[in-house]
Amino acid sequence: QQKYPRDKPWSLDDFEIGKPLGKGKFGRVYLAREKKSQYIVALKVIFKDQIEKYKLNNQLGREMEIQSKLNHPNVLRLFGWFHDAHHIYLILEYCHGGELYKLLSKIGHLSEHQAATYIASLTKALAYCHQKNVIHRDIKPENLLLDFEGRLKIADFGWSVQSTSKRKTMCGTLDYLAPEMVENRAHDYAVDNWTLGVLCYEFLYGAPPFEAENQIDTFKRIVAVDLSFPSTPPVSVEAKNLIRLLLVKDSSKRLSLQKILEHPWIVQNADPNGTCN
Ligand SMILES: CC(=O)N[C@H]1CCN(c2c(Cl)cnc3[nH]c(-c4cn(C)nc4C)nc23)C1
After folding, report:
1. If you average pLDDT over every residue of the chain, what do you get?
2. ipTM confidence score
3. Residue 138 annotated to the active site
């Protein structure tokens, strides 16, 4: 029985490779099973020549350094990594529930109970990342996965892999970026608070708040904080209140992560153990 963390370096021979889960510019993610333990993982395969071509070696190294240190129930685990002549392999936690995105596009919008539970989980994950000096976890819906219990996991290493079920308009979208990001001004931890507001809106209405026909109009709506709430689906006043406290142009005035967890809408609607089953 292999003790953990293991001393012998991992190699491809340790795994049986299953179906592809996603693919992208830098590589692909496969379902895989570690032979000795029969443990199911997601194996992310990154092409070395793609990394060298885009001069991303140190970014990848930094991402992996950060990711291997993070250990939180709502942050996807990086168990280890190895490489061969042409590839780098990341051994990642596998989420049986797949992408939150697929669930959202299938059911249109989430209930207030589900939305509050996932916003609370994201807030706790971000508070943990910020405490480890990790910001801007790029929390777009396609980077949010669900484990077998329906618990949310932030799955991003800066190498967003487009999984096969990706919404096409997703690539390069501005929808989730704060004004200071789209205006290319200095950004700090508070960008994540803005993104929580965007996600909360999208979970409840099924579309992001500043969606527009093209990127220019989205850009204009973000910098103007052109926020309005449709009359359907019906959404509680408390939920709208939280969204308004996060989608604030002045980043210093956005509700803090701690205050989000104390907000009445979260306290009244979020499931304490984050599974909302
Ligand atoms: C940003 C990113 O990595 N996106 C995707 C690619 C596969 N990857 C997964 C990662 Cl990294 C971990 N677990 C996953 N589970 C799934 C998945 C499960 N079902 C039923 N359908 C899917 C898809 N995908 C993953 C995340």
Report:
1. 88
2. 0.94
3. yes
- Rounded distance from Cα 56 to ligand 1 centre (Å): 22
The active-site residue, picked from 13, 14, 49, 138, is 138
Radius of gyration of the chain (CA): 19
What is the sign of the dihedral through the CA atoms of 215, 161, 100 and 70? Answer: negative
DSSP letter for each residue of 242-275? HHHHHS-SSGGGSPPHHHHHHSHHHHHHS-TTS-
> Ligand 1: which atom is nearest the Cα of residue 164?
23
Q: What is the pLDDT of residues 215-269, one digit of tens each?
A: 999 999 999 999 999 999 999 999 999 999 999 999 999 999 999 999 999 999 9
CA distance 33 to 41: 6
Question: 275 CA to middle of ligand 1, Å?
Answer: 18
Residue type, 274: G
| Secondary structure (DSSP) of 160-190 | ---BTT--GGGTT--TT--HHHHTT----TH
Token pair for 176: 């989730």
Per DSSP, which regions of the chain are E strands? 15-23, 27-34, 40-47, 78-83, 87-93, 98-99, 144-146, 152-154
Q: Are the C-beta atoms of 76 and 145 separated by less than 8 Å? A: yes
